[in-house]
Write a structure and sequence with these properties.
With about 180 residues, this protein is an alpha+beta fold. The chain has helices at about 10-20, 20-25, 35-45, 95-110, 125-130, 160-165; strands at about 1-5, 50-55, 60-70, 75-85, 115-120, 135-145, 150-160. A seven-stranded mixed beta sheet has the order 1-2-3-4-5-7-6. Strand 6 (about 135-145) and strand 7 form a beta hairpin. The protein binds coenzyme A. Coenzyme A (COA) binds next to strand 4, helix 4 and helix 5.
């Protein structure tokens, strides 16, 4: 599996995934975004960074994103990740590998002290991925996500730099 930063030619595919209930799964909020909205969102450098997950044969199987969560009171920015795979490629270990890779990349390339993720409390697959990648559950965010017409509780997970210790997949020279 390869993880690479999104390119212009991936935009139509990313826009399609971002609008597709089958790809977002049962535990992600649904939204409809035009290609132009997706492009604008991706042009904002401080906002959202998508990476495309590709199999060795070059087929695109999903995405992983990182974005900033801002604490307005202090101006503190934390990094959060999110991900989704096309249904036919789930359960094969790809997302665990992708999360480990992006964690390596972020800790190697930035001075961040934590990376966080939040997931619907029913989303067992996502929780397992995070735990396998070394994240710890911090607690419950009550009625945090609006999904399919109801406010859902979510778990907040994080991994701290001191827990990560060293790269698991990337090496310092392969950054
Ligand atoms: C959640 C998701 C990203 C998991 O990706 P994946 O590539 O299938 O996960 P992996 O194959 O790396 O699986 C990791 C572990 O979770 C388990 N797992 C995966 N899906 C599961 C599910 N639905 N229920 C329970 N366990 C599950 C796997 O069996 C594996 O455990 P094991 O190593 O002990 O066998 C994928 O199901 C998906 O894209 N879902 C829709 C989008 C989504 O929910 N994104 C997350 C939003 S927070």
């Amino acid at each position: 599996m390869n993880l690479r930063i999104i390119e212009k030619e991936d935009m139509p595919q990313f826009a399609e995934w971002a609008n597709k209930p089958e790809v977002l799964g049962e535990y992600n909020p649904l939204r409809q975004m035009s290609r132009t909205e997706v492009e604008k969102m991706l042009e904002n450098p401080s906002d959202l960074k998508p990476f495309i997950l590709e199999k060795k044969d070059g087929s695109k199987i999903g995405f992983i994103i990182h974005f900033h969560v801002l604490h307005l009171g202090t101006g503190t920015k934390q990094l959060e990740i999110g991900y989704a795979l096309v249904p036919s490629e789930r359960g094969k270990g790809y997302c665990t590998e992708a999360v480990k890779t992006i964690v390596d990349y972020l800790f190697l390339s930035r001075e961040v002290i934590r990376i966080q993720a939040c997931t619907d409390t029913r989303n067992l697959g996502s929780q397992k991925v995070l735990e396998k990648a070394g994240f710890k559950k911090e607690g419950t965010l009550r009625k945090y996500l609006f999904i399919r017409g109801e406010w859902r509780d979510a778990y907040l997970y994080s991994i701290l730099r001191e827990e990560w210790k060293e790269p698991k997949i990337l090496t310092k020279t392969s950054e």
